[in-house]
Amino acid sequence: MRSKMMGCREEHxxxxxxxxxxxxxxxxxxxxxxxxxxxxxxxxxxxWLNSSSSSGTYRFVRTKVASDLMVQVGDFSFHxxxxxxxxxxxxxxxxxxxKRSEGHGHNGGSLKIVLDDLPGGTNTFESIVNFCYxxxxxVTATSIAPLYCAANFLEMSDDLHQGNLISKTEAFxxxxxFSSWKDTFKVLKSCESxxxxxxxxxxxxxxxxxxxxxxxxxxxxxxxxxxxxxxLNVGESSDSWWFQDVSTLRIDHFIQVIESIKxxxxxxxxxxxxxxxxxxxxxxxxxxxxxxxxxxxHLTQKLQRITIESLINMLPAEKNSVSCNFLLYLVKLGLKIxxxxxxxxxxxxxxxxxxxxxxxxxxxxxxxxxxxTTYDVGIVIRVVKAYVLLALKNSRARLCIVGRLIDGxxxxxxxxxxxxxxxxxxxVDALPTNARSCDNNLYRAIDMYLKAxxxxxxxxxxSVCKAxxxxxxxxxxxxxxxxxxxxxxxxxxxxxxxxxxxMARSVSASKSxxxxxxxxxVIMKMNNKKCLEKGFIAPQKEIMLIRKEVENMKMQLNQLxxxxxxxxxxxxxxxxx
Length: 577
Fold this sequence. Notes:
- The protein has helices spanning 2-6, 82-86, 90-101, 121-132, 144-153, 165-179, 181-190, 197-200, 203-215, 243-246, 251-263, 268-282, 297-314, 324-337, 341-352, 378-390, 396-413, 421-429, 440-452, 458-465, 475-482, 489-511, 516-526, 528-534, 540-576, and strands at 18-23, 26-30, 40-44, 47-51, 69-73, 76-80, 111-114, 137-140, 283-284, 287-288.
- The protein is an alpha+beta fold.
- It has a domain at 26-201: Potassium Channel Kv1.1, Chain A (2-Layer Sandwich).
- Helix 14 packs antiparallel against helix 15.
């Protein structure tokens, strides 16, 4: 194959024609001699005629052989000769034979053949007509794939005529695909107009394999290391220099390229990054760039759904090969476009398994509606719920990692005025109670939310604060909470009461160090053995001291209850003022 490709660089004339490559992306095909000599192919409106234009008027070829075949391709009609066309096309030969068998074309009449499904359409068929009549054919990397597909469609093989169009186009096609990075993409992009022929003839596979080989190789290792815009890629960042060109491909061709790249052993992290790059290019926010007003809406939606499902299915399975943020974005797209629910559930489970390695910024996926929250909270709630189902057997330490993550995320979104109370509470309450060892970040998020939403009712504020517990706050956070006018009265009162209980216990503990009970306990320990031996019970004095201490505790509790009532009244008065 390589000798065949390299031989295309110079002209080889023979009775079977030749292939000449002048420039890396340009080829001239010289066909074999035609059985009918035509001086020129002339266009008249939408009709194409074999004529000589030496006198400035249209007339048939010098042999004065009248046109006996009309081929219609789209809106264009080509007035041709059966002998020139059927001698090189097995498909046209069969159609002409079938028409004649049906009685068409007798008495000197012209046969009419309609080619509605010809790959490449009118322009490609014009090149085929040139070839059949012995004119040279100019071919580029952009036109070679449609011409090769059309030659196969018309069955223009060497079995019918030596040096026929299939073998001619195949030589330059292989050369264009493997010699130049830029031309490989031109060939692959041109395949979009000739599907499924380009797929069945393995043109897409050859291009995909060539791209994969070059992407897995140092760009300096092959010639013309340029992107599809003609800019050198050699200076681009390390392994990702090929992302930009690959992201221009249509989804079906992109899938084929990614599959080839995976087979080449490219690192999963690079594959995942490439998929993310392609998605960012083709989806602006949540709008598919392919949106076309000429295509029915239901077909566009179907294409979007197939695209997202294909992207999810092609994600590398390796751990940490795709970022959590990109996966969340795919969930967002999937929910909007209503992709397969089972596929979406698997994606959410995958994200849930990554939460313990994420940071709060990884969970930020932007919304684009005017009335939406800045970031999509709903997808995070779904993923956290999926994590809870997975984490039933996880240790408390692992649960606390995700607890800190969610509390950190809450602080990032709490100031959003469009964030509803329901969503905020759902996210706060999504984790089990043992997922938090410290409520400082949760308190900070709640305070920020209450500040950004001053119109909340007292009951609504109390429901927001329900998950926050006094004993999980630091001393500074407790002091701040007791002076925080944004917190509901019930919470402030409860925290003050608990603070008084804490102080009372502290006082009791300090008094016990000099309490007579201590002396009694020492005496009891010293005489313990003696008491046990003689069967003595505890001295009456010790019992009296214990009873007195119990009474003191009861009095302190009553005093605390009175303090609570006074505090509630004071707070109520201050609120009224």
